[in-house]
Design a protein that fits this description.
It contains ten helices and four strands. It is an alpha+beta fold. It folds into two domains: 72 residues, Glutaredoxin (3-Layer(aba) Sandwich), CATH 3.40.30; 130 residues, Glutathione S-transferase Yfyf (Class Pi), Chain A, domain 2, CATH 1.20.1050.10. Strands 2-1-3-4 form a four-stranded mixed beta sheet, covered by helices on one side. The longest helix has 27 residues. The radius of gyration is 17 Å and the shape is globular. The termini are far apart. It binds glutathione. Glutathione (GSH) binds next to helix 3. The site of glutathione (GSH) has 11 residues, from helix 3.
């Protein structure tokens, strides 16, 4: 098998998704940590968008976390992390897309803006998305779970989980409050946090708070 390399950054939730996919598939790989504040000068020769994650499989390169994860799924189908049924596949893709174009996109804007009005709007939007995930996603797809699509872990879980691991940053620096009563989502989060793949690389809330504080030139919480 050709060697796999993943260009990654420890705070990057997108790179985290691909690390989890590799771990769930028990694929050996070399992790190359990129300091995004001080990228190697030739980084854009390796990563055309200048972003992490980027996966190298032998000489082949693939980027964009959702596409990396699908590439891994198709190249290494065992254990499967995507449903076989076309309708379920479409649903899985809809939720992966929702993560990217709604949850993560709003989070990115919220972390970048220092405007209090935009921050308040972003926080409200995130709460709305989580309610939507609970009611339209988890409750309808599989009320029992514990995973997004039912009893088996999938790429949908691995796409969302990194956001939840870092939620303390939004709570601390943007006043976000996790909506109450999202019981299915809470159960989902606990189930994914307990995966061996997650436990092997998960970071604490304190870790994220300290690093985000440093990046934004803010005082880190005690
Ligand atoms: N849509 C991309 C997003 C990747 C992304 O935004 N990566 C960030 C780190 S989390 C990055 O590399 N930023 C470097 C930069 O903007 O210069 C994906 O899913 O892979």
């Amino acid at each position: 098998m050709s060697e796999i390399e993943l260009y990654s950054a420890v705070l990057c939730p997108f790179a985290y998704r691909s690390r989890l996919t590799l771990a769930e598939k028990k694929l050996p790989f070399k992790l190359i940590e990129i300091d995004l504040q001080n990228k190697p000068t030739n980084f854009e020769e390796i990563s055309p968008y200048g972003l992490v994650p980027l996966l190298k499989h032998g000489e082949f390169r693939v980027w964009e976390s959702a596409i990396i994860n699908e590439y891994l799924e198709e190249s290494f189908p065992t254990p499967p992390l995507f449903p076989k049924d076309p309708m379920q596949r479409a649903q899985a893709r809809i939720w992966i897309n929702f993560a990217d174009v709604r949850l993560f996109a709003t989070t990115h804007k919220l972390l970048l803006t220092s405007d209090p009005l935009q921050q308040a709007e972003g926080v409200k939007e995130l709460s709305k998305y989580l309610q939507f995930v609970e009611q339209e996603g988890l409750q309808k797809l599989s009320a029992e779970g514990p995973y997004w699509l039912g009893t088996e872990i999938s790429l949908v879980d691995l796409t969302y989980y990194p956001w939840f691991e870092q939620v303390a940053v939004l709570e601390h620096f943007r006043g976000f409050q996790f909506p109450k009563g999202l019981d299915r989502l809470k159960k989902w989060c606990e189930a994914v946090a307990n995966r061996e793949s997650v436990r092997a690389i998960a970071k604490s809330q304190k870790f994220y708070l300290k690093h985000y504080a440093r990046l934004q030139g803010l005082a880190s919480p005690p």
